[in-house]
Amino acid sequence: MKLETAATQLEALGNPTRLRIYRALVRAGEQGLAVGHLQERIGIAASTLSHHLHRLIATGLVGQERQATTLICRANYAAMNGLLGFLSDECCADVRSPQTKDNAA
């Protein structure tokens, strides 16, 4: 994952409302949630939800699918796992072992 992509996704999740929306979609699993149900669960106006969903979709964290007259939103788990991997892949990579510290002194 590119640094710019991770930064954009993290910025989108940095808004409390978008984070609540995203967590609700992650909790919903692969079946996702209809926009109306998501709106009820989060308790925000339709126009506000639309604005925040647009941002999450633009970053690739959320996808939408129309099923007849219902719009279903789903968390993009591949994107979520990519972001989490980006954050954790190099965890502690620069930490020297105790032996290395002793030898350096």
From TrEMBL:
Keywords: DNA-binding, Transcription, Transcription regulation. Pfam families: HTH_20 (PF12840). InterPro entries: ArsR-like_HTH (IPR011991), HTH_ArsR_DNA-bd_dom (IPR001845), Metal_resp_trans_reg (IPR051011), WH-like_DNA-bd_sf (IPR036388), WH_DNA-bd_sf (IPR036390). Residues 1-95 form the HTH arsR-type domain. GO terms for molecular function: DNA binding. This is DNA-binding transcriptional ArsR family regulator. Transmembrane segments: none annotated. It comes from the Bacteria.
